[in-house]
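Your task
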Amino acid sequence: MTCFNKILMATAAASAVAYAGPASPVPPAISEGWAEQRNHMIESQIIARGIKDPAVIDALRNVPRERFIPETDRPLAYGDHPVPIGHGQTISQPYIVAYMTELLQVRPGHRVLEIGTGSGYQAAVLARMTDTVHTIEIVEPLHRRASAILPGFGIPTDRIVLGDGYAGLPDEAPFDRIIVTAAPPKVPQPLIDQLAPGGRMVVPVGPTGETQQLLLITRDQDGRVQRTADLFVRFVPMTGEAQK
């Protein structure tokens, strides 16, 4: 794949706000059941686009995405696009969830922090891969909804936090992995400070309403931090302190 094609595919396929590219084949009808749609999504949207990590594929195959979408929009659960969840927020396109999770390289035993619980789907996928996942959501109705769902996926209520994710969770730090699912204009320094040696953070960075850059931030065993630019994406903005 050429560099140009990779960027073009990334811009279309990784959008967390709107999908603007060739869609995969139409999923099976609702009457065929959620499991069939989930498997079709895995084959046509995830594996076909190059996701290889068996743990990521297993998590997506075993977390019922439809559970995290408001009932009126559940027929859209396995479409090749993000889906609104209310309050100006979305559940990200399945491919971008898979891509960011694979880039994070979560392994059993890792302590993971998610900024932006949203629907709770990303947190549930992470909880399938490791036992310790903390997640923060600033929008109270979304926090309440996720708090009612996520304990059933192995995340205790005391790890489902209502608050401004800009500050992270210093009392629980350090974290082996941090994932940010809303875009700040720059990487919050508190999150970098809470990344453990050997840790990885995935975060979209850039202005609201424009194309943003997905960054991979790593900290080596000597504490040195490195930033690597990855896909071009579009996410909803990180609110709260990040906007000041």
